[in-house]
Amino acid sequence: MAKNIRLKTARTQKDLSQEQLADAVDVTRQTISAIERGDYNPTINLCIKICKVLGVTLNDLFWEE
């Protein structure tokens, strides 16, 4: 699994720390870090929550070309 650079970019564009995003979607900071590193494959429900907080689509963050 590749690193999720798009997630990190979208998060930083919203000026959110990993901790702030984690709190907003009700997971730990470590979970967000693991998703960004590509070490954890989030559930579809978590993907949707992240996208809603960041104001982007599933395709924007999680669709692999």
From TrEMBL:
Keyword terms: DNA-binding
Occurrences of domain HTH cro/C1-type (ranges): 7-61
Record-linked PROSITE patterns: HTH_CROC1
Alphabetical list of CDD domains matching this protein: HTH_XRE (cd00093)
GO MF annotation, one: DNA binding
Top-level taxon in the UniProt lineage: Bacteria
Keyword Magnesium included in the entry's annotation: no
Pfam assignment, any one: HTH_3
PANTHER family attached to this UniProt entry: TRACRIPTIONAL REGULATORY PROTEIN-RELATED-RELATED (PTHR46558), TRANSCRIPTIONAL REGULATOR (PTHR46558:SF3)
UniProt protein name: Putative transcriptional regulator
